[in-house]
Amino acid sequence: MSQTAIQRLYLMQVGDMPEYKIPIVCYLVQTGDGKQILIDSGLPEIMPEGESDFANGRDVIEQLASIGLKPDDIDIVISTHYDVDHAGRHAAFTNARYVVQRGHQLDAQTNPRFAATRPQWDQPLERIQLVDGDTELLPGLALIETSGHVPGHQSVLVRLPNTGTVLLPIDAVPFGEGFTRDKPADDTNPDAEAIHASTLKLLDLVAREPIALVVFGHDQQQWATLKTAPAYYD
Ligand SMILES: [Zn+2]
Fold this sequence. Notes:
With 234 residues, the chain is of the alpha/beta class. It has a single domain (6-223), classed as 4-Layer Sandwich (Metallo-beta-lactamase, Chain A). The protein is built from five helices and twelve strands. The strands form two sheets. A seven-stranded mixed β-sheet has the order 4-1-2-3-5-6-7. It has a five-stranded mixed β-sheet with strand order 8-9-10-11-12, with no helix packed on it. The chain starts with 5 loop residues before the first strand and ends in an 11-residue tail after the last helix. 41% of the residues are buried. Bound molecules: zinc ion. Zinc ion binds at residues 83, 85-86, 171, 217-218.
């Protein structure tokens, strides 16, 4: 096996929405040559105004500490999108390069939805790697453009040596029950078409290649069945 291949995937719950029993999560991927790749960073330390539905748990810094890592050890932060429950601690990773879809970075410049997390994601341009659409970031680690939830949202595919391929749809498919070819019930959402198209894109991917596990973005029922840090998938 090549040195750069993916070796481990950690699942970390960093908070929740207590009223709805929705977990807030992020992920860590480790390669054979020692790269530490964080996927999202969870909630901010101090919740912005109007975000009182969220509650911090053991945050990403504590979760990483539990497996012997400091924020400075993180080489790459894959940013799926800049919502408050996904990009809330980005600025803590001062050695990392951020990887984000160009379309998302562009939208975030003027979209008030991402204003609250701006101090986290608005990093010097030389630290941000903009990608355009589906991208093989590293051997065994692919980004899949899944706009809809927000413009330029991305999902992640992780190929593990023993578990097999794990798909992380993130908020393209937050709940397992939504992973169907049916049109979404809520078609009042102006982005319903794009959300549906991204769901179909991921369903096509699952039909095309063997996927061992799909970890839905915010699915409490599924989450309770998964291995979480310090345990890992390899
Ligand atoms: Zn989310």
